[in-house]
Amino acid sequence: MEHLYASDCHNHSSCSPDGRDAVESMCQRAQELGLYAYTLTDHCECQEFEAKYAPRVERAWEEMERAKDCIAGKLRFYRGIELGQPNQNLPAAEAVLSHREYDFVIGSIHNIRNFEDFFFLDYTKEGPEFIDRLLCTYWQELLEVIAWGKFDSLGHLTYPLRYIEGEHGIPVDLAKHREAIDNVFLALIRGEKALEVNTSGLRQKIGRTLPDLPLLSRYYELGGRLVTLGSDAHRTEDLGKGIDEGMELLRQAGFAEFAVFDRRKPIMLPLK
Ligand SMILES: [Zn+2]
Ligand SMILES: [Zn+2]
Q1: 192 CA distance to ligand 2 centroid (A)?
Q2: Fewest CB atoms within 10 Å of the CB: 21, 125, 139, 199?
Q3: Measured in angstroms, how far is the CA atom of residue 84 from the centroid of ligand 2?
Q4: 20 φ, ψ (degrees, to nearest 5)
C-alpha cells in the first residue's frame, strides 16, 4: 500500500454467500498488504435473515472472534458487518446488533422493496422513467436507513449505477436527482453517520468509486467530514484494491482525514 494509514473497512469472506475465501485467509492477506486497519464486513441481508442469514451471521462472528486472537503483528483487526436493507426488517437488524459487540456496521441498500437486487434487474424492459423511479425509491430507502440510524457508515452510495451504467451501459443523468442526493448527505451529516467510499467500481465496468469524486466533493461542500473506505473485496486478491486511489480522491475532494471504527466509535486518521 502507498499510504501509511491505508485501511480496508468493507470486504467479505466465505461467510457471505458470494464471498470466496476463509476469514483466516482474508486476515493473512490484510497482513501481507500491510494495511493499517482491517475490518471484515460479511453480509446480512435483513429481509432474508430468518430464511438464510441467521446461521451465517453467527458463523462469521465466531470466526472473527477466533481470528482476533491469532492475528500477530501490528495489524488492527476489527469485526464488522454489512447490514443490507435493515429498513426492511428492523427486528432482525436490531437482534443481530444486540447480541454482539461489533466494531463497525455498514448500512446498505442492495434491493428496494418488492424488487430483486439491482444486480438482477432488467433495465431495458421499460423506459428511462423506470430507472428514475427505481432511483427515487432507492434514495427514499436510504433515508429510512439513516433515520433508523443504528449503523456507522452508509455503504456504496449509487450502488444501482454499478449495474445500470456499468454493466448495462445505460447513462443516468444524476442532475435530476441532485436534491434527493443532497438530502441523503444532509441526513448523514445531521445523524453523524459516515459516508463510505467503495472502491470496487474502480475494478469493475463502471470504472469509478461509489460514490464518485463529484459526489464526494458535494458531501464535503455540505459539511460532511466523516468518511470510511472499503474495497468490497469478495476474495483475497481484491483486498485493499483501490484504497490508495480512494484516499487520493478524498484529498482532491477536500478531506484531510478518514475514519476507521473501533467499538462503534470513529478513529480519525490522516489521508497519508
Ligand atoms: Zn453491499
Ligand atoms: Zn459488500
Answers
A1: 22
A2: 125
A3: 9
A4: -105, -40
